[in-house]
Amino acid sequence: MSQILFTNSYFYKFDAKQWDFQQPYPPYGTMYAAAMMREEGYDIALFDANLIDTPQDILPTIEQEKPKYLVIYEDGFNYLTKMCLTVMRDAAFELAKIGKKHNCRVIVSSSDSTDHYKKYLEEGADFVLLGEAELTLKELIGELEKGQQSFDHIKALAYLKDGEAIQTIKRPVLRELDSLPNPAWDLVDVAPYRTIWENNRHKGFLTLNIATTRGCPYKCNWCAKPIYGNRYNTRSPKRVVDEIETLINTHDVHYFWMCDDIFGLKPKWVQEFRDLVKERNLDFKYKIQSRADLLLKEDNIEALAQSGLHEVWIGAESGSQRILDLMDKGTTIDQIYEATRLLKSKDVRVAFFLQFGFMDESREEIQQTIDMVTELMPDDIGISVSYPLPGTKFYEMVKEQMNKENWVDSDDLDMMYSGSFKSDFYKRLHRYVHKTYRKKQGMENLKTALTQPNKLDKSQLRSALATLYYVPTAMLDKYRLDKLEKA
């Protein structure tokens, strides 16, 4: 029997695109909150909802644990949870109703509930924790345990008072991240994650997630920061390396996704991290998200490569400098080119996040992005269309034109406001860019197959053969795009 049952409201199987990737990660933020409440002396349990089929699957755990509190605490380190996908919101609503039916006090924390706390209170939540939530959760349950009936003094909280939804004042973000215990990895069954990853033909090995920072100080005007805000706070390199070493020894894992918005921004952090990794002779690889301008500072790329960096996802977004400036991105096309070339020279894989449909982006600017991709040939690309998130400058710029508030899942790709072209155009563009990229990739591998066949591995051979598919289908998509542009 537990006082507090933690769960999360992200269901990989509800999002066909993400489930098809077969690259799930444990609910890191939920594990953080659970570890803190355990340190406070509460009996806790965790129901990991990531891989289940329906919210109803929580019932046996609730009936066994009979918790006093059901805490639906979403992972604020996963960019997908910031998108407010309706399938996940509905799952959270169902979890809240199940909790209420079993006489739990239901407490919710997520990006979506922070933005839309009234909806969650209407659907059965007793409290919504606004923003960074560990300290609010600790204060709230402490007051509830005392029998407190008034909660106006607790910062960053939303609840119903006399039938009306109210929110208290904001809470400053936590600066000393080392004051928190490490996430409660012991509460997660890693075995099903391992099975999925090892059966993934593109990967074949377990990957786990780690956060080294919270927040992002940059001002990209389409990026929402409902949990950690515009401040940037870091764990010490020692605490991060300690966690990595523990996971290597406990789970025999040797690949990590550093799930920070921006990895290694603090001066000399990556250099100290590298030194500790080498000092302890740790054997692992990792991938990060970063910015072209940050990567070019000091000897960051050299230090990252020496510490085991395998892949970096750069927020390239666009090949048009005008679009980058409209986004308040703060980076230049030249920096994207230079960072990509330097990373490749260190045998680090480079991947681009690309975004189409921002404001009045023209067909010519779309082509500039495609040209950048085919010239630099990153090792992977991720494509989306501009998504107006509440609380952003971009949202305020387009809210009068919006015809939809949320995507159903991450493969929705509908334009939520009136862009330069209609949704059908951007959905076709998504396919066209991927095919154009794969065509170029395949042609390069085909050239290698003809000139240096001994250097070709199986994946490169498949890529070369796939050129027979991508050449005609890319041409067909281009024809369809031209028709949709004129529609």
What order do the helices and strands come in, and which of them pair?
Elements: E1 4-7, H1 16-21, H2 28-39, E2 44-47, H3 59-65, E3 69-73, H4 86-101, E4 105-109, H5 111-115, H6 117-122, E5 127-129, H7 134-145, E6 157-161, E7 164-167, H8 191-198, E8 208-210, E9 213-214, E10 233-234, H9 237-251, E11 255-258, H10 269-279, E12 285-290, H11 292-295, H12 300-306, E13 309-317, H13 321-326, H14 333-345, E14 349-356, H15 363-376, E15 380-385, H16 393-398, H17 423-451, H18 458-486
Parallel strand pairs: 1-2, 1-3, 3-4, 4-5, 8-11, 11-12, 12-13, 13-14, 14-15
Antiparallel strand pairs: 5-6, 6-7, 9-10
Q: How does this structure look, described?
A:
- It is a single chain.
- This protein folds into two domains: 4-167, Rossmann fold (3-Layer(aba) Sandwich); 207-390, tm_1862 like domain (pyruvate-formate lyase- activating enzyme).
- Strands 2-1-3-4-5-6-7 form a seven-stranded mixed sheet, with helices on both faces. It has a six-stranded parallel sheet with strand order 8-11-12-13-14-15.
- Strand 6 and strand 7 form a beta hairpin.
- It has 18 helices and 15 strands.
- Helices cover 42% and strands 14% of the residues.
- The protein starts with a strand and ends with a helix.
- With 487 residues, it is of the alpha/beta class.
What is the share of helical residues? 40-55%
Q: What overall geometry do the principal axes of the alpha carbons give?
A: globular
- What CATH calls the topology of the largest domain is pyruvate-formate lyase- activating enzyme
Mean pLDDT: 94
Number of strands: 15
Major sheet summary line: 7 strands, mixed
Radius of gyration: 23 Å
Q: How many individual helices?
A: 18
Task: Provide the domain count.
Answer: 2
Q: What is the level-2 CATH architecture name of the largest domain? A: Alpha-Beta Horseshoe
CATH class of the largest domain: Alpha Beta
What fraction strand?
Answer: 5-15%
Q: State the distance separating the first and last CA atoms.
A: 61 Å
Which structural class do the helices and strands define? alpha/beta
Low-confidence parts, pLDDT < 50 over ≥5 residues? none
Tell me the strand order in the biggest sheet: 2-1-3-4-5-6-7
